[in-house]
Design brief:
It is built from 23 helices and 18 strands. The strands form 5 sheets. It has a 5-stranded antiparallel sheet with strand order 8-7-11-10-9, sandwiched between helices. Strands 13-15-16-18-17 form a 5-stranded mixed sheet, covered by helices on one side. A 4-stranded antiparallel sheet has the order 3-2-4-5, with helices on one face. Helix 7 runs antiparallel to helix 8, helix 8 crosses helix 10 and helix 12 crosses helix 16. The N terminus and C terminus are likely disordered.
Length: 852
């Protein structure tokens, strides 16, 4: 914290010792008076109070039997027996039963008359409302005077408040002993006589010195002039009453002067600080000053017929408000206190008025039925709970508009602008929104938003203004600086002028720091209100909240701008690096694809080579005997025919049977030759170029080779359409059909569906041919369906498959420019769709290399 800001002042030793001495004397007097006044509780008394000179005091409470007509009259006899002292009068009444009608002879001037008043018992409630109120006011008045004196010992206003507090405390504390035993009666009149002079002295200095302030001693002289005869004639009832009424008149006039001065200073004064100090006094003046002043004046005018003890019910509020206004310099906090007090005062009054009004209305409408029911308070309480929040909101609006002249709803304004600030990414846009928001809610001369840091200073966003160094010196998080701060707010008396000059340079009247994570990041300033009014606590809270939102938005915008700048410098490097990474990724993807394809092709080549060797060996081994049989059948049949032509009839039948056996051998040889031809046709080992092929022939060839896997348990349904010849490598395409049909046969599991089905259809599709192979087998699980074309992935048991069939098939179809897709539902079979284009643009070499 800058050293110019004040710390708690340390009063001189003499002042502190004096304050302690006054406090100790007050404690002793308060203890003594509390003990004596506590003796009243439970005692029978006349129903009114007597002073030590047998004069009826102008003090009473509701429920007492004594009336106001008795005030300031001397009691000379009780039930016809003369009394010579107040203790004697009290003793006679206490000796009679409670509620006894007692006849009193009263004297007022030269006239005497009799009245009858019932005695009653003094209760604990009476003690709190009478003596407790006196003691409370004594404590508040004395504490206010001493605290201000210790905090501001050299200020004339502090000494005036000390005189006001001590005289008021002396008057109140001795009042607790005034009605018996009256030990401090003479001390009481000293406080009573000098209290108006102290009030006049205070009125001449607060809120700022009056031009006649140096004549404050005249008021004390008047009090001394009243005190001398007061003390001399204290036990002479008639002059006592006159002097007492003159003192009350003096006190009432001093109060009237004080109140008039406060109003004039508020209306005509040019100092915002003075107006704010008067504003904080409003609540205390209304409750703790105006009511007692009217009470004292009414008592003086009516000759003492108004109970002055009622002034103690609210009088302490005036001392509290006055002390707070003198000592406290954070005017916005004062505003908040006054505003809350006004809210709850009006709210309490409204609830009380509603309760009384409800009782009256129900008594008029339904006499004795509802208002007197025990359920009425409960129902009324429930109604208040339901209507409390709307009523409080309404009254808060009334206080803001009437008392503080505030016409905007800060919560709604902040809610509306907060959403826009949260999405704004331009500092100029943020500054414009903040300016529009402040000037719309609080029309003022000039609103500025400055942003930066303490080291480099704050510069206006969207402008060329900078925060003066003198202003940065006093700017702290949470502290609002104003152009009307008093010099007492700072340890250095010249600091207020420095702040005022810095704000004037910014055309501002109030400055609110922008705080982000506990650090100052900016400044929000607002110029003088166009209405000429003073900034209030509500305005300060609104500006603080808006400033905090603006700080967050500005920080976000700064981060965004820094990111944009960084992106601008890094964009080219990122683009280059991205291109390098993309090229590397492409090379890696190509190499990986080549590696995988080479692996698949290697397995495929090995498989085809093995198949070729197998087919070549089988064909070679079978072709020799088949050829021998085939070439021998024709000569054999010719010989049998010649022999049969010349043979007798009985031998001819045997030769016919031999000829039939030779025919069977010929057909077997033909069948064996056909099987060898199918093997050669499937592998097409001798072919090296693509050529037009009938896909249906390839399918039939694959089915014949797989016949042992589906015969007697699976029904094959062929649905061949009129399809054109497809230019392809017949050996590779046949391998695709072989793999797909083999999987379909395996999917129809023995024991689950003995009579399975495989449906095969061919159809022209666009510029190609689509082959659909569907089975009603077990199907494929959804989680495995996406991996069926991965090399070495299989859903069969260990040893049941290599996981290369569909991977090889996918590679072959893709290399031919076609596509293969699989659809499957577990338990409902699988459908494989193979589409191959009719015309090919790729060479056989590209196909042999994997189609790349």
């Amino acid at each position: 914290m800058p050293e110019d800001f004040p710390t708690t002042p340390r009063a001189p030793a003499a002042v502190r010792l004096g304050a302690i001495a006054i406090g100790l004397v007050a404690v002793v007097l308060a203890t003594r008076c509390t003990i004596t006044s506590a003796a009243w509780v439970g005692r029978v008394f006349p129903g009114f109070l007597l002073l030590d000179n047998r004069v009826v005091a102008s003090a009473s409470l509701a429920g007492w039997s004594g009336s106001r007509d008795l005030y300031q009259q001397e009691v000379v006899a009780i039930d016809g027996q003369p009394v010579s002292s107040t203790p004697e009068a009290y003793a006679r009444v206490a000796a009679l039963p409670e509620g006894t009608p007692i006849r009193y002879r009263l004297r007022s001037g030269d006239q005497e008359h009799d009245v009858v008043v019932r005695s009653q018992r003094f209760g604990l409630r009476d003690w709190f409302l009478l003596f407790g109120a006196y003691l409370l006011n004594c404590a508040v008045y004395l504490a206010s005077g001493l605290v201000v004196w210790v905090l501001r010992p050299r200020a004339p206003l502090g000494r005036a408040l000390l005189a006001f507090g001590t005289t008021g405390a002396l008057w109140m504390i001795t009042a607790a002993d005034l009605y018996g035993p009256g030990t401090f009666f003479r001390l009481h009149v000293i406080g009573e006589a000098f209290f108006p002079a102290a009030g006049l002295h205070l009125a001449l200095l607060f809120p700022q010195p009056h031009r006649f302030a140096r004549l404050a001693w005249v008021g004390y002289a008047v009090s001394l002039a009243l005190l001398i005869p007061y003390e001399l004639l204290l036990y002479h009832p008639v002059p006592y009453t006159l002097i007492h009424n003159l003192t009350m008149l003096y006190l009432g006039l001093a109060g009237l002067f004080f109140g008039t001065r406060l109003v004039l200073e508020y209306l005509r004064g040019r100092s915002p600080l003075v107006r704010q100090q008067i504003r904080v006094m409003t609540l205390g003046t209304l409750l703790g000053f105006a009511i007692p002043s009217v009470t004292f004046l009414a008592s003086a005018v009516t000759g003492g017929s108004v109970p002055v003890n009622t002034a103690a019910f609210t009088g302490f509020l005036f001392a509290l408000g006055l002390a707070y206004a003198v000592v406290k310099h954070d005017l916005f906090e004062i505003d908040a206190m006054v505003k809350r007090g006004a809210y709850y005062l009006l709210l309490t009054g409204a609830v009380g008025a509603a309760y009384m009004g409800a009782i009256v209305l129900f008594n008029l409408a339904l006499p004795g039925a509802i208002a007197t029911s025990p359920a009425f308070p409960v129902l009324f309480t429930l109604a208040v709970l339901v209507l409390f929040n709307p009523l409080r909101t309404f009254l808060q609006g009334v206080v803001d508009r009437v008392f503080f002249r505030t016409r905007y709803d800060s919560a709604r304004v902040l809610e509306a602008v907060g959403a826009e600030l949260a999405s704004a990414l331009s500092r100029e846009h943020i500054a414009r929104m903040v300016r529009d928001c402040v000037e719309g809610a609080i029309p003022n001369g000039r609103t500025r938003l400055l942003f930066g840091d303490v080291t480099n200073g704050f510069r206006e966003v969207g402008g060329d203004a900078t925060a003066p160094p003198a202003l940065l010196r006093f700017l702290l998080p949470g502290r609002v600086l104003t152009a009307f701060d008093s010099a007492e707010r700072y340890a250095d008396p010249s600091a207020a002028e420095k702040v005022r000059g810095a704000l004037t340079a910014l055309e501002a009247e109030v400055a609110v720091p922008l705080v982000l994570r506990g650090e100052l990041v900016g400044l929000l300033t607002a110029g003088p209100k166009r209405s000429g009014l003073f900034y209030t606590a509500g305005d300060a809270d609104f500006l603080r909240a808006l400033g905090n939102q603006a700080a967050i938005a500005l920080q976000n915008a700064a981060s965004y701008e820094a990111l944009v700048a960084l992106n601008a410098t890094l964009e080219e490097r990122v683009r280059e690096r991205t291109a390098q990474l993309a090229a590397s990724n492409d090379d890696l993807a190509t190499a990986l694809g080549d590696l995988r394809q080479a692996q698949v092709q290697l397995v495929q080549s090995e498989k085809m080579a093995s198949l070729g060797r197998l087919v070549a060996g089988v064909a070679h081994e079978i072709n020799n005997p088949v050829s021998f049989i085939s070439t021998s059948v024709a000569p054999l049949r010719r010989r049998i025919e010649r022999i049969a032509a010349a043979a007798p009839a009985e031998l001819r039948q045997a030769l016919d049977e031999a000829d039939e056996i030779v025919g069977i051998m010929a057909r077997g040889a033909e069948r064996t030759a056909a099987i060898v031809q199918d093997l050669r046709s499937f592998s097409r080992l001798g072919e090296a170029t693509r050529k037009p092929v009938d896909l249906c022939d390839g399918i039939d060839t694959s089915l014949r080779l797989l016949e042992s896997r589906w015969r007697d348990r699976i029904t094959v349904h062929r649905d061949y359409g009129e399809v054109p010849l497809v230019e392809c490598d017949p050996g590779q395409v046949n391998q695709v059909f072989m793999n797909v049909l083999a999987n379909a046969c395996d999917a129809v599991v023995d024991g689950r569906n003995v009579w399975g089905n495989i449906w095969i259809s061919t159809r022209p599709e666009g510029d190609g041919v689509e082959v659909t192979i569907r089975d009603d087998g077990t199907g494929i699980a959804p989680d495995a369906l996406g991996h069926i074309f991965d090399p070495f992935f299989t859903t069969k048991d260990v040893g049941g498959g290599t996981g290369l069939g569909l991977a090889i098939s996918h590679g072959i179809v893709t290399a031919h420019g076609g596509r293969i897709a699989v659809e499957s539902t577990p338990g409902h079979g699988t459908t494989v769709r193979i589409w191959l284009p009719v015309a090919q643009s790729k060479s056989l070499d590209s196909v042999a290399s994997g189609g790349r």
